[in-house]
């Protein structure tokens, strides 16, 4: 046994001594790299990869989820602030489903699911408090379902019920206060805020929108867009600014698309500035017009005829004494037979009556200017953008302005429209080198690099060894090529020794063994 070990040790020493110093250094470096990189790669690819499963957790929710994970023997990582929990990536979906099915993630609120834990024998006051708490919890869960909302707190004040009925007294109204915790980087638009007001108002009996207050965690009030039927000043200003911004962006996109298709992509940079009037106007107008031939339709006709006839008689009063007679007043006399007739026609005509209530447009574009930066076809030669092309661009932009300002009630000449257009001819500056390398797992790249370096070193080592062997073979004299090895048969005492020598020669020097066989065949 010791002789075998010694034999292998001698062979190893001979093997090591056969290499140069450079080859020895390369071999040692390769072995060292493999010894370091292979265990590290095995560790990296076999370790558990965690993925974020829950974020923005309330303390009671985090406690319930971690308790479930411990009981299920699922490994997890809890963030230092206790608001985030990570689980193995392969189990994220299963954990989320199980947590939701068990009602563990309630965002710090308890809704109607607490009814199953409600004991019997509660008093009316206790039940009223629990019911109000459950309603508040349901509202919190509903508000937390909005994407920008990380959490919420709802406080509802309900009017107390009275056993007495007071005739003519209006029912007392409820009120609600809501505090929202907005996620970092998110912002609630006015439409979502109005939706929250409506949801809270419809969820509570006798709760008008005016009795609801919603604010965010920093104390900033989030007002309803139509308080008492009129938009608040801040909401109105934000809405008007958004309309102006959207109009400018739409025109800018259209100009960029049109000119970009003509001059080429990246050759045009437009800038649009609009002036908008948001004054509202309401007017009422009544118009009457005939139906046919400047006449209306006869709706009703009324004809009245009156006739009188008399055969004569006295006129005046009873004669007086003469002293009381009025001078020049006719006295009693006989006038004979008399007749009279009166005809009256009343015709009601129906005419067209048009009642118009006109509300002006929500806004009117008072003015619009467009400035365009154009890169010439040859960047270093601004003259390559011909004046004809520049004039065509200006005319195209003037047409855009004309169609946009068509409803503001003003008339513009071509010269006025061209004054609102600016075309700047200049080569564009190259984009700044702001490329930020993507976050990469440098450990993985380092391990792969070490493994590649080790493989390259091993390949170089064996390649140099083959080259060295080839050089040694080339250095042999030409006569050695025809010298064939022989086996000393005379010094061999038995067949076993001959067989062992032949096996050794075949294993160590197969080419010489073949040449030996050829020699024997030729001799025979």
Please provide a brief summary of the model.
It contains twelve helices and 15 strands. By secondary structure, the chain is α+β, with helices and mostly antiparallel strands.
Alpha carbon gyration radius: 53 Å
What distance lies between the first and last C-alpha atoms, to the nearest angstrom? 42 Å
Helix content range of the residues, please?
A: 40-55%
State the strand order across the main sheet: 1-3-2
Query: What shape does the CA trace take?
Result: elongated
**Could you tell me the strand content as a percent range?**
15-25%
Question: What kind of sheet is the major sheet?
Answer: 3 strands, antiparallel
- By secondary-structure content and strand pairing, the structural class works out as alpha+beta
Q: List SSEs in N-to-C order.
A: HHEHEEHHEEHEEEHEEEEEEHHEHHH
User: Would you report the number of β strands?
Assistant: 15
Give the averaged pLDDT, no decimals. 77
**Low-confidence parts lasting 5 or more residues at pLDDT below 50?**
432-440, 476-485
CATH architecture of the domain at 243-279 and 360-425: 2-Layer Sandwich
Number of helices: 12
CATH topology of the domain at 243-279 and 360-425: GMP Synthetase, Chain A, domain 3
Q: CATH class of the domain at 243-279 and 360-425, anyone?
A: Alpha Beta
């Amino acid at each position: 046994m010791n002789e075998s070990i010694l034999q292998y040790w001698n062979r190893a020493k001979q093997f090591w001594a056969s290499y140069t110093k450079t080859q020895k250094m390369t071999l040692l470096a390769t072995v060292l790299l493999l010894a370091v990189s292979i265990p590290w790669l095995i560790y990296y690819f076999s370790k558990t990869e965690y993925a974020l499963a829950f974020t923005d957790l309330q303390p009671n929710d985090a406690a319930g989820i971690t308790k479930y994970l411990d009981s299920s023997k699922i490994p997890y990582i809890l963030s230092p602030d206790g608001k985030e929990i990570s689980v193995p990536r392969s189990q994220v979906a299963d954990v989320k489903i199980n947590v939701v099915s068990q009602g563990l993630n309630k965002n710090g609120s308890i809704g109607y699911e607490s009814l199953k834990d409600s004991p019997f024998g509660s008093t009316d006051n206790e039940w009223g408090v629990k019911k109000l708490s459950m309603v508040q919890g349901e509202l919190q869960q509903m508000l937390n379902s909005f994407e920008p909302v990380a959490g919420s707190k709802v406080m509802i004040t309900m009017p107390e019920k009275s056993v007495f009925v007071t005739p003519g007294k209006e029912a007392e109204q409820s009120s609600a206060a809501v505090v929202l915790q907005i996620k970092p980087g998110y912002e609630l638009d006015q439409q979502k805020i109005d939706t929250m007001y409506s949801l809270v108002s419809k969820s509570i009996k006798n709760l008008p929108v005016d009795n609801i207050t919603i604010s965010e965690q920093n104390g900033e009030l989030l007002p309803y867009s139509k308080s008492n039927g009129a938009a608040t000043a801040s909401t109105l200003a934000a809405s008007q600014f958004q309309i102006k911004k959207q109009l400018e962006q739409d025109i800018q996109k259209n100009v960029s698309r049109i000119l970009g298709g003509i001059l080429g992509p990246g050759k045009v940079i437009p800038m649009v500035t609009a002036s908008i009037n948001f004054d509202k106007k309401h007017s009422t107008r009544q118009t009457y017009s005939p139906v046919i031939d400047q006449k209306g339709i006869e709706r009703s006709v009324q004809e009245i005829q009156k006739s009188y006839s008399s055969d004569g008689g006295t006129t005046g009063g009873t004669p007086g004494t003469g002293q009381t007679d009025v001078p020049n007043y006719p006295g009693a006399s006989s006038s004979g037979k008399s007749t009279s007739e009166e005809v009256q026609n009343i015709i009601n005509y129906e005419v067209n009556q048009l009642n118009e209530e006109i509300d002006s447009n929500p806004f009117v574009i008072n003015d619009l200017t467009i400035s365009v930066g154009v890169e010439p076809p040859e960047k270093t030669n601004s003259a390559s953008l011909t004046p004809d092309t520049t004039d065509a661009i200006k005319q195209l932009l003037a047409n855009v302005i004309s169609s946009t300002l068509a409803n503001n009630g003003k008339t513009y000449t071509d010269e006025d429209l061209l004054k609102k257009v600016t075309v700047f001819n200049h080569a564009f500056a190259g984009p700044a080198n702001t490329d930020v390398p993507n976050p990469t797992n440098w450990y993985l790249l380092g391990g792969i690099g070490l493994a590649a370096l080790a493989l390259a070193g091993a390949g170089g080592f064996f390649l140099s060894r083959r080259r060295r062997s080839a050089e040694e073979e080339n250095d042999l004299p030409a006569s050695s090529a025809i010298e064939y090895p022989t086996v000393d048969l005379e010094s061999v005492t038995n067949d076993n020794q001959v067989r062992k020598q032949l096996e050794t020669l075949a294993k160590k020097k197969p080419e010489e063994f073949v040449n030996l066989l050829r020699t024997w065949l030729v001799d025979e």
